[in-house]
Amino acid sequence: MGRILAIDYGEKRIGLAISDEEQKFSFELDIWSPREFSENIRALLAERNIEKIVLGHPLGMSGQKTAKTAEVERFKEELEKMAQVPVELFD
């Protein structure tokens, strides 16, 4: 079984966490700048045998979309092109 990579997207920093191989536990991995992310994500996916990405999907308190939600959705589209593994949004 492959690992799951969790991503908390931000304009200035992108937080990364990774699951164990059994997908039972997750561990903080790193915090990258957007530049570091674009330079290193493909290698990380290959080296760590990532089979799925879970991306934080920030919705408002009532479940409505916000400006940050739209930004994350654009990031998801770019990530899907780079990653070639499923990317799920999770609030």
What is the CATH topology classification name? Nucleotidyltransferase, domain 5
**Between the first and last Cα atoms, what is the distance in angstroms?**
24 Å
Q: Which consecutive residue ranges, at least 5 long each, have pLDDT under 50?
A: none
Oligomer: single chain
Structural class: alpha/beta
- Count of helical regions: 2
Classified by CATH, the class is: Alpha Beta
Q: Globular, elongated, flat, extended or rod-shaped: what is the shape? A: globular
CATH architecture: 2-Layer Sandwich
Mean pLDDT: 95
Q: What is the fourth-level CATH superfamily?
A: YqgF/RNase H-like domain
Concise description?
Helix content is 34%, strand content 33%. By secondary structure, it is an alpha/beta fold. The chain has one domain: Nucleotidyltransferase, domain 5 (2-Layer Sandwich).
List keywords for this structure.
single chain; 91 residues; alpha/beta; Nucleotidyltransferase, domain 5; five-stranded mixed beta sheet; 2 helices; 5 strands; globular
Explain how this protein is built.
The longest helix has 17 residues, at 67-83. The chain has 91 residues and is of the alpha/beta class. 34% of the residues lie in helices and 33% in strands. It has a single domain (3-90), classed as 2-Layer Sandwich (Nucleotidyltransferase, domain 5), CATH 3.30.420. The mean pLDDT is 95. It is globular, with a radius of gyration of 13 Å. Strands 3-2-1-4-5 form a five-stranded mixed sheet, covered by helices on one side.
